[in-house]
Structures are given as C-alpha cells and as structure tokens.
Amino acid sequence: MKQKRNSKLGHHDGSASAGRNARATQKRERTGEYAGTGHHGVVGHHEGAGIDRKLHDPVEDRLTPLEPLDLGIVKSVDDLVRAMAKTAFTGRQLGEAADVLEAMARDAECFVVMTLAGAMTVAKQGLIVSDLIDHGIVNAIVSTGALMAHGLVEATGRAHFRHNPNLSDEELYEAGYNRVYDTLEPEQNLDDVERVMHAVFAGWDAEEVMCSYKLNRAIGAHLAKHAKGQRGILKSAYEKNVPVFVPAFSDSELGLDYALTNRERDKQGKARFRFDPFADLEYFAATLLAQKRLGILTIGGGVPRNWSQQFGPFIELRHRRGGEDLPLKRYHYGLRICPEPVYWGGLSGSPYSEAVSWGKFVPPAEGGRFGEVFLDATVGLPLIVAAVLERLKKKPAGKKALAEAE
Predict the structure, then answer these.
(1) How many Cβ atoms from other residues are within 10 Å of residue 325's Cβ?
(2) From CA 221, how far away is CA 398, in angstroms rounded?
(3) Is 199 exposed, middle or buried (0-12, 13-18, 19+ CB in 10 A)?
(4) Does the pLDDT of residue 392 top 80, yes or no?
(5) Do β-strands 293-299 and 161-162 pair in parallel, antiparallel, or remain unpaired?
(6) What would the pLDDT profile of 313-322 be if each residue is shown by its tens digit?
(7) Bridge pairing between strands 177-180 and 183-186
(8) Residue 302 and residue 340: Cα distance in Å, rounded?
(9) Of 257, 348, 250, the residue nearest 303 (C-alpha)
C-alpha cells in the first residue's frame, strides 16, 4: 500500500525522490526559472505562463475603429444600417449583411438564389420577397410549400389575423382558426387556396409530367390573370420569369391539394397527374451551371437551404463518379438570416465556413464573401432589404447578364 501511495507523488518510478523533483519543477515554473534566462522573475511561454508584452498601436496596425451610433445624423434606413455596420455584435452583422446583398445585386454576372423557410408569409414578409424579385435582385426561389401556400392567401386578397391570447387552442380549433405562434390563419383561407389550385389543375395537361417549378409558374400565371391589383411572390415570379422550387412539395397545403386532386381523378376514371421532383433538381442544376457566379440569400434554413446548397456536391459527384466534364461550381456569395445557434448541430444554424468543407461555397481566401445575421428574420430582412433598395435607388445597378439553362 505504501508503494502505491508513493506512486501518486512522482511521475516516473513512484519514488519519494521523484515526487520531490516534480514539486521542485512546479516551483521553477511558478517563479519563471524556465524562461530561458536562468534566473527568477522573467515570464516565459511555457506551462501557461504569460509574456512580457510589447503593446501595439492599433492605428499603426491598421485596425478598424468602431463609431458611436449617432441617431442625430441618421436620416434614412440606409443611414441607420450603415451606422450599425460600424458598431458591434448583431448590429454589425446586420450592417455588413446589407453590404453583401448590395454586392450580389451589383454583380452583373451573379445569379442569386433565395431560400425561404419558416412562416414568413404568415408574418407578412411576402411583399419584401416580391420586391427582391421585382427589382431583379433575386433570380430563383427555393421555398417550403407551406410558405408558398400561405403566400397565396395574400395574393387572393385574404388576410391573417392577430391571435387573442385569451382564446385557448381548443377554442381556436373549434372556430377554424389555425395558430402560428401569435398569428391566426383561418381555415377558410386555405379553402380559397384550394379553389385556386383546383383552377390550375383543371387547366393542366395530364400528359405533361408535373414538377414544382412548372406548377408554381402555372399558379403565377393564374394570379396574373385573375388577381389583378394584388401582389404576391408567385405572381411576381411569373412576371419576372423567376423559377420557384419547392423540394418538399408533399409537405404542404399545395401537396395535399395535389393528392386530393388525384384521388378525385381516380373516382372520375381519369389518369392521375404525375409529379417528378427530380425534374426540379435537374433544372435547378442546369440553371446554376450556366451562370458565371452564384449567390444565395437564405432566410431560416431547413430543406430549402440544404437542397439549394447541395448543388456543389451534386456537380462534383456527377464529375467524379459519373465522369461528366463539368465545371465544379460553388456559391461565391452567401447571406443568411437565422437565429439558430451552431451548437445544436442542425443545418439551419451551420455557418458558411462549415459549408466550405463540403464544397458548397468558395472560401473567403479565394474570393468568397459571406454575411451571417443571428436574428429573427422579421426584424433583419426588412432593414437589410430597405437599406439596399435605397442604395440602388440612388445609384442603380446595371442589367444582369445571366444565362439560360441549357
């Protein structure tokens, strides 16, 4: 037992002398004798010791100074956002994000994909997306189906409503009010969406295989004809020839309407509509392959973000496994607004630096430019887009030189 006890004192043979040597070593480390000078009091770089620092001049080191946010000189949203870029924390993130979006808008050879997740249209952010389309800043949309379905509510002139917290969810259910946090979607609204979808399906050629971007274009055409005076994402997308992809199409009101329509066609003895999600993937990839540079503007995360970002790996696999002679394209620009933290491990919170490792983005050292804002998008998106639109109004961007998919 004595030998075992001694073994805890030393680092080598368990002897008492080894223990004494260890304690002497610790004393020398505390007093600085191992600083390479042979005497006490000099601080070294070993075993956690500090150093005798030579303090730098931040001006000589060309560090960027921060500036107080002076509301007295702020005259516009752009003034505010530019001032925030010179502050710290999320304010700086937001200000720098506006610079990234402006760069994408001004890059004549940059094709910009916008991905949308979360209840952004229920939260009344849909017209901001329409503005981005109408001003030519966004060239393709990848979205959840629910977001597009709720957007149809606005485009048909219906409304969402503020939730009265005095009403229980049981009472809301009985009254036909679907709750999305603090907002209500009346079930009647979704019945109106179904009527729009019924009209679109009625005009669909059953011989043509359906996919989400083709269906969304048909919905946009219907709205352009029948919803005059109303604005909406799909209507703007149709008018500006911007494709809208819904990768998880069956996970939405639109997907349920499609399924119900096919069941009705079964009862009527008609051939079922056919839906091919891989037609979306192929057209999306072909469209991006035709471009010189790529940018992505992401709200939230989820399937739309991942589906859009997998373009780079898809092209690499076609080249490496399939032997296709293809340029290995990645996104040059990235801007995302999402409050989810990285440490949960989900894609929504993952930073662009992580996506570089997957071959999805050009690293900053090679010209990549990113902005990441950890903020509720209903706060961040209006400020960023309003600031950029003000900048483009003062100094318009040139016409984009984008290519068509081959």
Answers:
(1) 6
(2) 28
(3) middle
(4) yes
(5) unpaired
(6) 999 999 999 9
(7) antiparallel
(8) 11
(9) 348
112 touches 137 (CB < 8 A) = yes
Cβ atoms of 144 and 366 within 8 Å: the answer is no
- CA-CA distance, 279 to 183, in Å (whole number)? 35
Beta carbons of 249 and 281 less than 8 angstroms apart: no
- Among 109, 157, 105, residue whose Cα is nearest residue 134: 105
Neighbour tally for 120: CB within 10 Å: 23
Task: Give the three-state DSSP class for 244.
Answer: strand
Higher pLDDT, 12 or 311: 311
Q: How far is Cα 214 from Cα 383, in angstroms, rounded to an integer?
A: 32
C-alpha to C-alpha distance for 222 and 217, rounded to whole angstroms: 9
Domains of the chain plus CATH, in order, are 1-54 (no CATH), 73-394 (3.40.910.10)
Per-residue HEC secondary structure of 291-359 comes to CCEEEEEEECCHHHHHHHHCHHHHHHHHHHCCCCCCCCCCECEEEEECCCCHHHCCHHHCCHHHHHHCC
Tell me the DSSP string of 108-174: TTEEEEEEE-SSTTTTT-HHHHHHHHHTTS--EEEE-HHHHHHHHHHHTT---EE--TTS-HHHHHH
Residue with tokens 């000589």: 60
pLDDT tens digits along 333-373: 999 999 999 999 998 999 999 999 999 999 999 999 999 99
Nearest to 254 by CA among 128, 177, 147: 147
Q: How far is CA 242 from CA 102, 124, 215, in A?
A: 19, 21, 13
Residue 182 structure tokens = 């603090």
Contact 360, 330 (CB under 8 A): yes
